[in-house]
């Protein structure tokens, strides 16, 4: 982790306290351990298998993408075993991985009951985050997750929240006043330039999807937009000619 921290700090500024062993440093490490060990692949692929768990998945998790992910999760162990047959020198390692994918720690094809346990794990972790954020009162109200400094733990949390909202879990975990401090944090993190840059493409994909839906729903609107654009172009041409005369 130390080498990775140095690389990140070199690119994006100091994300860990200079004073190692401080209370802030310990808190950051505690939340890193909490957030980085969450089974995000299991949640992501499990959502594809059980789409009824969410209300409004967003790009890149479109229906077609979720359908493909569902097939991948169900057939992953079969594919790995196929690779094992074609590569005898790696057969043992690949067969062990196939077993872990089908029944063990790498399993992505979760039952609904198993997904309930996965969701409970995320819920407990986010409750710890909510309690931490709620402790920042008075002159600490503007603090980030672990202190005044925006830290690597905030990066972990931002990535997690963005994944959850793209999958469509915001109403389940924090939105609508369910976890008000986490909801406020989410609005705050979205205003950071670094977050905007990191999520530029997914954000624009959401906007394009909304626009596409609106245009599909209303041919009249599409015709109106075309007419307005045509009028604007004609007006501009007339203006240019008049201004030159």
Automatic annotation (TrEMBL):
SUPFAM superfamilies: GST C-terminal domain-like (SSF47616). Belongs to the GST superfamily. It comes from Cherax quadricarinatus. Signal peptide: none annotated. Keywords: Membrane, Transmembrane, Transmembrane helix. One of its GO terms (cellular component) is mitochondrial outer membrane. Coiled coil: none annotated. This is Ganglioside-induced differentiation-associated protein 1. The chain crosses the membrane at residues 220-239. The keyword Transcription does not apply. Residues 1-25 are annotated as: Disordered. It comes from the Eukaryota. GO terms for biological process: mitochondrial fission; mitochondrial fusion; protein targeting to mitochondrion.
């Amino acid at each position: 982790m130390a080498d990775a921290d140095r690389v990140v700090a070199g690119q994006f500024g100091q994300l860990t306290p200079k004073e190692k062993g401080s209370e802030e440093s310990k808190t950051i490490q505690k939340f890193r351990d909490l957030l980085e060990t969450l089974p995000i692949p299991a949640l992501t692929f499990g959502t594809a298998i059980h789409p009824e768990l969410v209300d409004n998945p967003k790009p890149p998790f479109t229906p077609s993408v979720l359908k493909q992910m569902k097939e991948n999760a169900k057939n992953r162990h079969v594919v790995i075993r196929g690779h094992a047959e074609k590569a005898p020198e790696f057969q043992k390692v690949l067969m062990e991985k196939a077993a872990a994918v089908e029944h063990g720690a790498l399993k992505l094809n979760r039952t609904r009951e198993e997904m309930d346990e996965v969701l409970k794990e995320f819920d407990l972790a986010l409750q710890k985050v909510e309690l931490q954020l709620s402790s920042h009162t008075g002159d600490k109200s503007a603090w980030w997750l672990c202190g005044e400094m925006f830290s690597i733990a905030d990066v972990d949390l931002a990535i997690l929240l963005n994944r959850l909202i793209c999958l469509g879990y915001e109403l389940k975990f924090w939105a609508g006043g369910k976890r008000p401090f986490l909801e406020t944090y989410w609005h705050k993190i979205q205003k950071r330039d670094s977050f905007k840059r990191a999520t530029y493409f997914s954000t624009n994909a959401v906007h394009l999807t909304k626009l596409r839906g609106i245009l599909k729903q209303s041919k009249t609107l599409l015709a109106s937009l075309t007419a307005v654009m045509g009028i604007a172009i004609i007006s501009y041409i007339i203006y240019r000619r008049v201004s030159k005369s």
